[in-house]
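Translate sequence into structure tokens.
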Amino acid sequence: MIKKWPDEKFDEIQIVRGKERSNLDLLHQCAAHYSEHMGQIFYIAKQCLKNDYQSTSL
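Result follows.
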């Protein structure tokens, strides 16, 4: 569980596709990647539902 990681764990380096990346960098990349896909899903939903689409904005 990430909540239990010591601070040093975030600075550890992993090799991903031949490049060195810190665990913190990888977490940021995963979060950004997830949000991009959510935007795609909302876009498709809006296209499919047209006038029946309800915005997720507050």
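Note: The longest helix spans residues 23-49.
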